[in-house]
Amino acid sequence: MAENEIALMAHLMRRAGFGASYEELEQRAAKGYEATVEELLHPEVQPDLEMDVMNRYMHGWRDMNGFMANQGYWTYRMVNSPRQLEEKVCLFWHGIFCVGDSKCMRAKQILLELNNFRSYGLGNFEELLMYLASDPAMLYYLDNQLSHKEAVNENWGRELLELFSLGVGMDGHSNYSEDDVKACAQAFTGWTIANAIPRYPYGSYANRFLYNRNDHIEEDKTFLGETGNFNGGDIVKIIAKQPATARFIARHLSNYFVSDEPQVPAWQHVPPLHPELIKELEAEYFRSGYEIRSMLRVLFNSDTFKNARFVKVKNPSEIVCGTLRLVGDFTEPKPRMYDPALEIRYMGQDLLNPPTVEGWHTGKEWIDSGTLVERVNFAAGEMGRVDAPGIQAIINRLSSEGSTISAEQLVDGCLKALGCYELSEDNHSLLLNHAQPAARLNTNSKEFALAVGQILQLIVSTQEYQFN
What we know:
This protein is mainly alpha-helical. The protein is built from 24 helices and eight strands. The chain has a two-stranded antiparallel ribbon.
């Protein structure tokens, strides 16, 4: 099998998932690139995770009311779910449609929102917005339960336009006006949360959406050039058909899956990094009837995506979950099961608790002097565990090349096993020098396993490993 096919598959699995072992890359490459894309785009054909055993051991995962339980559960899903794109898309929407536990203080309610992202995140964008607009966690987070026809709260209406669908502007022009914000907020009056069911004697119940017709403003409203007695559903339909919405979603998909774009507030005046791809994605948005799955099919099969290797800074979830997938030792209950979720937090991505409704700033802003130390220490610590299944598989693969191998074979074999990483000439030379280039290594010795572990640790400590 051609090495460039494996390298392309490794690129796809890092971006459309959280990476894959070399054995999985070989299997997927044998199926073919386009067939793998289709499989990823249809997670429903893959089995979901079997959680029975985990639920027996991880008691907090039974009712999912605890914040840390939810973080640990999601981290486990990202590492182990065969539906890799489903989890990656869930994280994508969580970074855009932000709801934080710091205000909601109902982790299970946010989990229900995340489940909607899993179920509908690859589907129709208009339907996804409708689910979001009636999601109790979002309504509470953006205060729409406090919006009444006699006292309209514009928080939800403003963020729906600015951060969730249109964006402030594009091509140097504004996408909406203050009057549009007011009309949007008025249309969503009456969209609220039902009174809570008492938790005793059966435990805590999820909150439910309630439409209070008596608290809705029944009058004509003018929104984005259209006039009518609009309700919230009408607003969503109008938003979904806007060219600005197609651009907004296309740029977010490009930023998340292809190359790091400038931060969202700059998009009104800063053009996209890949304008031709953005145009293709916009066209597919309308051609497919607002289907995210169809847009991603265009994206993953584009030359722009295929050639954009190692140019995106990994977010903390990608660093942690990608490393754990390679190590292969986070698949069953054991002590310190919550440590990986805490590592993601220490690196700056507090899952279920983004810093603001704007979400996390991505790209190079993921890394500072503190988070870089966390990233390197975590990855190097995991890769040094030569008894872990994934590391053992790498050792066995290298050992199968002969009774002895050269230092260059060792370094290049480790780079290949981690997903065909490419190092600068200087870093490659440093690793060769560490591996004693004048000697051949006995693959049957205990020292060989330690040498493999050390090279893997050095690779994940390089600048190159911080990029997808």
